[in-house]
């Protein structure tokens, strides 16, 4: 291939790059041109890729066409590689927070978080001007304590609703597996605790769904495949699941996901394409598709996902719910499929910011000794009842990047920023975040290389007919990355870490749309093969990468809808360990936007109350 070799990009040293508003740094749009295809065309592409001779030629052309060669593989980069996104302890100055004592139990942390909620939490939801509101963890807790309903009654409603979503007329594909017997057993135990007047805490009896990338007994962990659970059996709960269980949460089953997390659409050829509750003919986003859609449809107020490349925040935005990814290391990865060691971690999908805080409190324990450890700063929870008093917040905005989205998203997010600025007096600081596309490609090489390295012992013995067609394409591309590709990607990680540290000297958070597009239509022939859609794929992940590649905390929530009534999300990206500040800002934004929220077309009221 020497005749076709590109001259690599020569990067200037990171400190020489201008990060100011008037920087002359060029904004490079994603260079993806392939048409969206599914069905037979996907199968043909797989056959070509897996051909010994044609496959290597096509992979080379793909990498060259998408600028991986020039921007990463043969690039001239001065910085050394940075192999992890771990952050040491830092002094974070945060407003209106309460420090949490170390060594508290999950239930004790939940109690601390509950004390941070506004005393009149329900007022924003019961306002008659509100078109739609979602039941919160506190709503369920109050209903159980008052005897208005019981966890067992709610569990039965959940099971009836889950069954209805499987009807061929809907075929929502929220879950890969759930057990009537196990759900009812947990609900009966919780109901007895309430009858005795001894609930464990606010999460007792609350329904929580778990992405099928996270170990949760008694279910196998499939990773969205037909085979992975056979070679890696689930023998105990993941650390985050154990903590939820200790709080009395009812773990209702394993949610659907994009196979191996290798896509952002949520289309799974084995378990069905998870459909968007706002429009069942549209995608839900992925890879934590089932978790986001289940929360959106009211089947549970919270769910767990795993975020390796926006996999929590993308479906949260497309389904109109809260998606929260803490700092890398804040939540244990123990019991999570090791598909992306340095970029992935558990995240939270929730009906409201308050629910995200309570769930975060339950699972934000320190890392176990079996994992690499580093010193974490003290844990703070935001005093949401004093969010209105937070001042002097600076929101960093890179205009060229922010505007690389559809007109509806751009206008909606701009309007939301203006509302935040006018209502709270927060300032928007114009900055330049350089090399966005270079970071996306470097992350793609990283997550792909780590995925194939993790699965290599199994793939060498596997019949590829057991793998979905689109996942086979992803694995073929992942397997083409060289050690030089991976090392240069980590050098770009080092550069981006420097850039973001400098930007956080100018602002408290970086603000972006969450996705560049809203939910798009499901292709009729994608159900069996998945699809190839690199243009929409790049648009979906455009604003998510820093959270994973650099290990930064980020949160997204619903701020409006496009002309077709599909949700639009806005994202805050914070400095390491600034989860409390991010939740404050998200709660402030939710307060301004919540009265415009609309009921999804597929929605289940598990508390059986009248809603506007």
Task: Please give the structural blueprint.
Elements: E1 37-38, H1 40-49, H2 52-65, H3 68-73, E2 97-100, H4 106-114, H5 123-126, H6 137-146, H7 151-165, E3 175-177, H8 180-196, E4 207-211, H9 228-231, H10 239-246, E5 250-255, E6 267-268, E7 272-273, E8 275-276, E9 279-283, H11 289-296, E10 302-307, H12 313-319, E11 322-325, E12 345-350, H13 353-363, E13 379-382, E14 394-397, H14 399-402, H15 407-424, E15 427-430, H16 436-459, H17 469-479, H18 483-503, E16 509-513, E17 531-532, H19 534-541, H20 545-549, E18 554-561, E19 567-574, H21 579-593
Parallel strand pairs: 4-5, 4-10, 14-15, 14-16
Antiparallel strand pairs: 1-17, 2-13, 3-5, 6-7, 8-9, 10-12, 11-12, 11-18, 16-19, 18-19
Helix pairs in contact: 1-17, 4-13, 7-8, 13-21, 16-17, 16-18
Q: Give the low-pLDDT segments.
A: 121-129
Average residue pLDDT: 93
Give the radius of gyration.
23 Å
Tally of DSSP β-strands: 19
Strand arrangement in the largest pleated sheet: 3-5-4-10-12-11-18-19-16-14-15
The chain-level structural class is: alpha+beta
Largest sheet: 11 strands, mixed
Query: Helical region count?
Result: 21
Strand content: 5-15%
Residues in helix, %: 25-40%
How far apart are the first and last residues' alpha carbons, in Å? 64 Å
Tertiary shape: globular
What would your notes on this structure say?
The relative contact order is 0.18. It is globular, with a radius of gyration of 23 Å. Mean pLDDT is 93; it is low at 121-129. The strands form 5 sheets. An 11-stranded mixed β-sheet has the order 3-5-4-10-12-11-18-19-16-14-15, sandwiched between helices. Strands 1-17 form a two-stranded antiparallel ribbon. α7 runs antiparallel to α8, α13 packs antiparallel against α21 and α16 crosses α18 (483-503). It is built from 21 helices and 19 strands. It has helices at 40-49, 52-65, 68-73, 106-114, 123-126, 137-146, 151-165, 180-196, 228-231, 239-246, 289-296, 313-319, 353-363, 399-402, 407-424, 436-459, 469-479, 483-503, 534-541, 545-549, 579-593; strands spanning 37-38, 97-100, 175-177, 207-211, 250-255, 267-268, 272-273, 275-276, 279-283, 302-307, 322-325, 345-350, 379-382, 394-397, 427-430, 509-513, 531-532, 554-561, 567-574.
